[in-house]
Amino acid sequence: MKTIKVLIVDDHLVVLRGLRFFLQTQATIEIVGQAQNGEEALQLVHALQPDIVLMDLIMPGLSGIEATRKITEHYPQVKVIILSSYSDRDSVLQAIKAGAIGYQLKDVRPEVLIESIQAAMDGVKTLHPQATHQLMSHVVMEIEDEKSIDILTAKEIVVLKHITLGQSNKEIAAELHISEKTVKTHITHILAKLEMQDRTQAALFATKNHWFD
Length: 213
Hints:
CATH topology of the largest domain: Rossmann fold
InterPro entries: CheY-like_superfamily (IPR011006), NreC/VraR/RcsB-like_REC (IPR058245), Sig_transdc_resp-reg_C-effctor (IPR016032), Sig_transdc_resp-reg_receiver (IPR001789), Tscrpt_reg_LuxR_C (IPR000792), WalR-like (IPR039420)
Distance between the termini: 62 Å
Strand order of the largest sheet: 2-1-3-4-5-6
Keywords: DNA-binding, Phosphoprotein, Transcription, Transcription regulation
Number of strands: 6
CATH class of the largest domain: Alpha Beta
Number of helices: 10
Largest sheet: 6 strands, parallel
Shape: elongated
Structural class: alpha/beta
Domain Response regulatory: 5-121
Domain HTH luxR-type: 145-210
Helix content: 40-55%
Organism: Paenibacillus nasutitermitis
Order of helices and strands: EHEHEHEHEHEHHHHH
CATH superfamily of the largest domain: Response regulator
Oligomer: single chain
Strand content: 5-15%
């Protein structure tokens, strides 16, 4: 079985030592170097040509995101796995967009990290469950944002506009010369089509998407 050459990048010596201690016990992994910032990582990638780079995100100087972007751009054969303490949506998205093939948290189980390294060698992306959750949340938000005002009827659009103005059902009924019952029916249809739970959520969604600017 081919030995996997790994470069570890982290500005905390304790993390570096811990990773090195564990990984060097794996028969299929060779630790070829370690770096404490993005600039050092780039220099060592050029000099050592590792298969895998385990990359921290927040480091002095060149960040893990920028280092990942440069590595994947200039050394496409080198696979970068982010190993970070951060699982927020922006960090995960930036890392993936920068070209990282994996995103794991530093509390990842050792055997899972090994699986992630092996998967990266096969070109398979792997994500920590928390990172996956963040990406799924982002996808759901994008899908919601793609909802178009065109799915509403002309009367429903008018009712929703009055809702965004903060008017009550009674005020909307008086303004449009219809019954409150009819207003409630329109609101029910609006919420169903937009997949919203209440009128406030629908009003915020319409405002966020500038439907009535």
